[in-house]
Amino acid sequence: MTTNFRSLLLGAALPLALFLGYSFRPTPVAESYTYRQFSTIESVVPGGLGRSRVIISDQSDQEVGKDLLNFYSMVGINFKNVASNDRLIVDQINEFNNDGWELHTVTTGVQSGEKGGGIFITRYLFRKPV
User: Fold this and answer.
1) How far apart are CA 49 and CA 72, in angstroms?
2) 20 to 30 Å CA-CA from 89: which of 12, 31, 53, 64?
3) Phi-psi bin for 116: left (phi > 0), alpha (psi -120 to 50), beta?
4) Cα radius of gyration (the chain)
5) Could you read off the pLDDT of 1-56 as tens digits, one per residue?
6) For residue 63, which phi and psi values (nearest 5 degrees)?
């Protein structure tokens, strides 16, 4: 065999091997998930008059709520309340995580009223392979 013929044969064999190697591989199947969500609604109504809660939909779609503390007291922002809410939210995330749920997406939003009040809402979407 001549050197040119060997080069041509090798040049044709490489693409053929790549084609055969990738053509007959099984198509990956997308993993299926089940989802679960909880939302936090935190009031920013001055004077501590607002209501703040964690809303959880359990497996049977029943609403389970936990009270959160309001951001504001009569003298302004209450940072101890903010820290307490943070602990409760992280505890809820850890509980879901320990039950095999993966935190998939976090979405936030703000709704403010004309009179200085409003809410922060955060949605935590979890997923678990089926």
Assistant:
1) 8
2) 31
3) left
4) 28
5) 566 677 766 677 767 776 766 666 677 778 899 999 999 998 877 766 778 899 98
6) -80, 125
Q: What is the DSSP string of 6-65?
A: HHHHHHHHHHHHHHHHHHTSPPPPPPPEEEEEEEEEEE--GGGTS-EEEEEE-TT--EEE
Q: Is the pTM of this model over 0.90?
A: no
Whole-angstrom distance, CA of residue 51 vs CA of residue 96:
24
The answer to whether the CB of 56 falls within 8 A of the CB of 64 is yes
d(CA 77, CA 92): 24
CA distance 130 to 115: 46
DSSP conformation class of 71: S
